[in-house]
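User: Please predict the structure of the protein below. I'd like the answer in structure-token form so I can feed it into my own downstream comparison script.

Assistant: Understood. Taking the following sequence of 110 residues as input:
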Amino acid sequence: DLHLSLRRQRQMCIRDSDLTHKIAKTRRDLERGHKVRVVILSKKGTRRALPGSQEDERRTDMVQQLLTDLCAPTPDSKQPIARVNSDPAWKNARSLVEFMLDGISSSSSS
């Protein structure tokens, strides 16, 4: 398991069964124009992924999919609901990746 911290005030542990729900809650914050700091941590005792390994590729794909899911336009808009404030930065310790998103509220884009 990976630990996902979507910061406004919540920290979440990722499980496939509830990831969709957690992304939806975070999207609501972004739709309201809030900033969100995303930190993905490896579970204590998890081995580090070697660069270029299948696990490294899986993690990179997961981060790209998460960015897509969090920033995707709402069904009634063509504009993304968030923009990347800081690109994903890969870390060496337990923090695998960290990035910031700025919510784009519909009132500020009009």
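That's the full token string. Confidence is low (pLDDT under 50) at residues 8-12.
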